[in-house]
Amino acid sequence: MENWIIYILNGLYFASFLFLTALGLSIILGVMGILNLAHGSLFAIGAFMAAWIIGALGVHAPVSIFILALFAALILSGLMGLVLETSLIRPMYERALEYQLLITFGALLLIEDLIKMTWGGTAYYASKPFEMMGILSIGDNQYPLYFLFAMLITVVAGIGIWLIMAKTRVGIMLRAISMDREMAKAMGIRTGRLNTLAFGMGAALAGLAGALVVPTTPALLGIGMEPLIIAFIVIVIGGLGSLKGALVGSLIVGETRSIGIVLFPEIELPLLFLVAVIILVFKPKGLFGR
Amino acid sequence: MTKKKIGRREFIKSAGVAGIGLGAAGLLGSSVKVRKATAAQTRSIPKTPIKVAAVSFLTGAAAAPFGIPGDNAYKLCADEINKQGGILGRKIELKSFDEAGGADAQVKLARKFILEDKVDVILGYISSGNCKAVLPLSDELGGLIIAYDCGTHVLMEESRSPYKVPKYGLGFRSSAHLGIDNIGLALYIKQYYPDVKKIAGINPDYAWGRDSWLVFETAIKQLIPGVEVVNKLWPKLGATDYTAHISALIGSKAEIIHSSLWGGDAVTFTKQAIGMGLFKKARMAYSRGEPYPQEVGMGYPEEQIICCAGTHYFLYPAKDKWPLNKWFVEEFYKRYNKYPTYPCYHAYQAIYTYKAAVEKAASLVGGWPSQEEISKAAAGLSIETPSGMLTIGEDHNGREDVLVGISKKVSGYPFPILDPARMAIFPAHQVNAPVGIRTEDWIKGWKV
Amino acid sequence: MRFIGQFLRPKSFVYLGIFIVLLFMPKVLPIYQLMLFESGLTFAIMSLGFNLLLRYTGLLSFGHGALFATGAYAVGMMGRYFPELYRIEILIPVALLVSLIVSALFGFICVRHTRIFFSILALALSMVLFALLVKLYDITGGSDGLHIDLPSMFGKSFEGMRRPEFLSGAYYYFLLCTFAVSTIIMLGIVNSPFGKALQSIRDNEVRAEMIGIRVRRYRWYAFVLSGLFTGLGGALWSFVNGHITPEVAEWVFSGEIVYMTLLGGFMVLEGPIIGAILFTYLKLYAVSITQYWMFIIGATLIILVLLLPEGITGGFVRLFSRIKKSEATGAA
After folding, report:
1. Considering only alpha carbons, which residue of chain A is nearest residue C292?
2. pTM for this model (two decimals)
């Protein structure tokens, strides 16, 4: 039954970049109370940036170039996030939450076309790292090492975020804001600056996730739309604003999808949405939501 | 006192709103062109250029393997026709448009072409979903539409045999539909792998994928009755991650896997499958796989069964045997540095079908023909193409032979080609259902 | 009595005038422009419904596209499975009935929450419907969608007629009248005691509860009414477009609904109507002048939210009140 090991590994691989995306979305939602509809577009920026770098330079030393590409993607998306937050979202703090949602929707439209203007309309393939890393034999089957590498990066990033949140002053302040914004302000925490930081972090995570998929998937216009929706499902299942929830949610979604395709190939996506709705009905704040 | 104030404020507010409304109506009205009564067709030939709208995927995953080569082929052909003097002396003015954006966007675009831009003909559509949505507009709005690449057979077939033809008076398809691909694959498998026991399918979840599998399954079960279908997968069109599907296919132990995946999906799938070792365990049978060895390059696996959506292949018919293919391949390579693939051949077919139909109709009516007259002339037309002969049936659908081969690395080419020793050509009458009969019904009636 | 009293205001005569002008549109506009205008009218009906929820109840639904799709697919499925009943006098009530059921279901789930949770839940539910429409290929036509034939209207069949003729003839008047009636009904709802109750819930939920208004129940009713209007818009739109796809159930279209309403201005009843019609043209011309139309729409949305959050009608209202103010001070 080594096939089942592969199915579970597949689920973990899918859960990896899902987790990064959902984590970013969750941090933004938790700290700022905004559902960032532009999150998928930030994912796309990461994907294009990485694909472009790999395509341009990756013929030589693909793996180290790939690590470079990951950082570049992370930084670019993070910067974009900072720009977005300071220019568009900050003026909206005093307004109704609904306006903030709309602004991120407008940002999505803008960024999608900015990507089109920068990188054009064709697909960017960047499969060198995937091919170069080789395979691992699991019994009779083979499993690409790249998938394990992606999972490793995700774990590293996840631990990094956890350390920031648990151990640094900044992280503790972020958590305070997400628990009770008014109280945090009353205690003198500079919510404005921290909001920007949170948004930047979330955006960088999305960019990293985008960069991780390009060795197996071409960077295309609209690549971020589906990750946005599935990440949204993840945080709904796991709990809005909960980091643990993002982890559990991604695992549930990733494995459901992987095993679902094997056992019920007709169902795929609707099953996930339905699960999300059922959970929302009973636990409107998600499994671990506050 | 207060009442009057409110009244006035209300009135001004409403007048303002009304003003907006009237202003908008006025604006709309002033941009009006009074509807001209259609003048009776005089039998002269206009001097103005022929407006042709060519629609293919210019962005997105399908652009590089399909849309852009197809569009390039249109440009090549239009230039060639204009070089030879145009159609009845009128030059072709070809404008290219992007097929991306979904069926709804294409419906709106086609409506604009016909009603506002008043194009002479629309040559378009790679995606079967777009064809299905747009072709009804040909009769609804009165514009000639020639579908060039989409393959779903239900575009022109009805749900019961026999059915009345043609389905659309002004709608055509200048290529054969997916029947030839999938019947061709089944015939090939029967010829070369008659002992196959387990087959599976992975097809995109829309008309093209569903219908391709349907025809293939019907045909293979007729030809090899003992075969077992161990898995059927339906990733959505444009899915980017096939890892779970690939594992499921490996797990089901299929020997031959049918697939109508195309465009970027086919490339992504192939690359992921190579990494997961699918091709060590099974063989793919691609219903329209001809472009992908060139797209993927030397990494493309050998021993994959590939159908060419007709006999469209840069190496067939051989250059010394069929000069038209020699010209087409060389000219295309010279301009675009790539060998033409089947969308390119399909594009040739579309634009030359239009040309031939116009010329035939003109010779009958003695002047520039109307849309209806062109349409009548097109039915039953036969033309020479770089791949062989194309016939347009009374049902407005193309009929062609089909070529199926198997990939092999041969020195002298930068990507695997079809092994010349194992190419099979199935003639048109063996793979195209007769006019008016549903493809599935026809297959079920075969005496095997 | 108060209801009738509304109609004797000067505003009503202006609207009557506009209505009469609109009756002449088919004679004046070329068919392509007329079809666009008709699309705009169907979106206007939809936006009226949407705004009942937004402005008067204070709930932002990011999933109204699903309700629009419900109306459209009700027509499409009737055409596919019950072609003998393909009459507009049957199709519209069926679409309304299906919209009623779906909105009641969605609403029941959504109104248990407010603010961002409400919006998120609405989005999630709309994506369930979208995914179902796409996956159930054999029933719904999947992502390829369904073609919509011309229905017969009150006994008169339009078999063999081309869609442009149909749309510039009988159907236009039917649509215009439906639009007028919908607007009048919405006006009635908004000014009725029920409407006032909704607004009091929006302003202060706790106080409303204290004076005996059943908050959740009323919100549910508002959602259902909103869904009815939106579904009606969807059904009427299906005939104009001739083809329906699951895309309208997707959250991006739901976002466009919000945009339309905001563009016209959600503070005023007429705002969404104007926004819907304008948006139809805005999107079309953006698409035709540049491939970067999303940038244009996105930029205008952001500008709207930042500078003109009450939309175009809001802008006019402020302009007029400023004129009034300067008049008053000038007179003094």
Report:
1. A113
2. 0.87
